[in-house]
Amino acid sequence: MINWDEYYNFSEYEFTCSHTGECFMNKNFMDKLQTLRTSLGIALFISSGYRHPTHPIEAKKSKSGEHTLGKAVDIACRGETAYNIMKAAPLFGFTRIGFKQKGHGRFIHIGTATEEDGFISPTIWSY
Description:
The chain has helices spanning 12-15, 27-40, 56-59, 79-88; strands spanning 45-48, 72-76, 96-100, 107-111, 123-126. The chain is α+β, with helices and mostly antiparallel strands. The chain has a domain at 1-64 and 78-97. It contains four helices and five strands. Strand 3 (96-100) and strand 4 form a beta hairpin. The protein has a five-stranded mixed sheet with strand order 1-2-4-3-5, with helices on one face.
């Protein structure tokens, strides 16, 4: 169980599944995210945190993504902020990084799922 008081720059609400209202973020992931946030010294706007496997985005997939493990977030960002997150994320243990930096709804996905979780790691991709 997460003690949200440890993550003073975030609230549980930011990470709650919009489909079920549940929130099962991984503590190790959250520790890394708080350290990244503290290091960057800028607000990180979480556009997607935990997703239950029945969440419409996950339900479309042949295999649920790392959001269902509580080991990933999407951070709404663009420009210099996106660049700074991209540069810093690997330094803090984020091994799975995806970018959507074109058009509407720009974000960076950062995650820590491993091969043991069934994911290629490290990896980088664009949407």
